[in-house]
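**Sequence with structure:**
===
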Amino acid sequence: MILSLFKHSSRPAAARALYGDVVRQARRTAFYGPGGVADTEDGRYDLILLHMFLVLERLNRVSPDPAQLKQDLFDTLFEDLDINLREMGYGDTGVKIRIQRMVEGFYGRMTAYRDGLAGGDGGLEAALRRNLFRNTEPATAHVARLADYVRAQTAALAARDDGDLLAGRAGFSAPQWPEEGAGP
């Protein structure tokens, strides 16, 4: 674990800062109550991956390609997940198996969200329903609001200066939907 902590802290500042933005955004309570995402390990993990998708997709449009930053961001994510699994009591074998599944899930979600955004016709909503709302029966309004949020964040990130992202500033905005109890 010490080696993992050392590696985590040795990542470049921009990757650590972007990852911090991703985690802070994914922890916003609006996603869990009024947003309809389950406040569970899986729900939190899936929101982190959704926001990683948003940042990585935006970084894919930077020229020249910031390949090292994207790799450092990916590594920061999985080093953090490794640390969290160990803190939850998983041993080396358990961590290895879970991280391998998480990496596979990461790539699957990235593809699903990318295809969903590109395809229209409810593709993004279907991808969100399969991933963020799996094992639940979300209100259609929750799924639609989250899809609108993803589209709005995609547009906002597209409008950000490349330098902001390269310096580690994602600049997410708060989700805009009614408070808990105000209706779906």
